[in-house]
Design brief:
By secondary structure, the protein is α+β, with helices and mostly antiparallel strands. Among the domains are: 3-75, Arc Repressor Mutant, subunit A (Orthogonal Bundle); 149-224, SH3 type barrels (Roll). 46% of the residues lie in helices and 16% in strands. The protein has helices spanning 3-8, 13-27, 34-41, 45-57, 72-94, 100-110, 116-126, 167-170, 175-182, 214-217; strands spanning 61-64, 67-70, 149-150, 159-164, 189-195, 201-205, 208-212, 221-224. A hairpin with a 2-residue loop joins strand 1 and strand 2 (67-70). Helix 2 (13-27) packs across helix 3 (34-41) and helix 3 crosses helix 4 (45-57). The longest helix has 23 residues, at 72-94. It is globular. It starts with a helix and ends with a strand.
Length: 225
Amino acid sequence: MSAGEYLNKEWHPAFEEYCEAIFELQEDDIDTIRARVAERLKVSRPAVSEMTRKLAGAELVVVAEGRLNLTVTGRRLAERVVRRHRLAERFLTDVLGLSWAESHHEAGKWEHVISERVEAAMVEVLGDPTTCPHGNPIPGSGYEPSPGVPLGSLSIGDAFIVRRIPEDLEWMPGMLEFLEESGMVPGVEAQLTSLAADGTADVNVSGGAVRLGPDCTSRLLVETA
């Protein structure tokens, strides 16, 4: 598919969602096996297998050693969808004042209908942002985030700065609401005050104590201050 054909083609939202899911799983270093895609999209494994055949037929995905990999065209499609999703999150949060959770939910709808003209206007209004509200890079912005380390890898007493809330955390029910309300947002400085063997941690952020479960401490990306 030529560049011109790619830019002009309209893809079914299901194709966009699958390519987006594969892209985000790869971004978070999670194996792109069918089971992980099924978990992310909340569909059955047979449904993923059926869609995989369709994606392969459309030359968006290839399967190698049990993993789903995006083709060049599939990656371009994924980057376009992820870019619009994260721009929409930024617009809904920064301009309209919606919460993180509301913005994440609504952006899932907006990503399929934002035109190039609207995208350009949003970029202008937002001042060409490089990340979504959760610190994840906006494709096409040229921004390369520092890799960071999981919060649970730090030592008790370490001061740290929250850098990124991976998509894997964003999809956990209630997690975005909890992190936003707790002040655990990108750029905030905090201190690890306790860390249990199972990964449960206590942190001091903005003068208050917050307890984080192992699902969070194993994924939340930070860097030492």
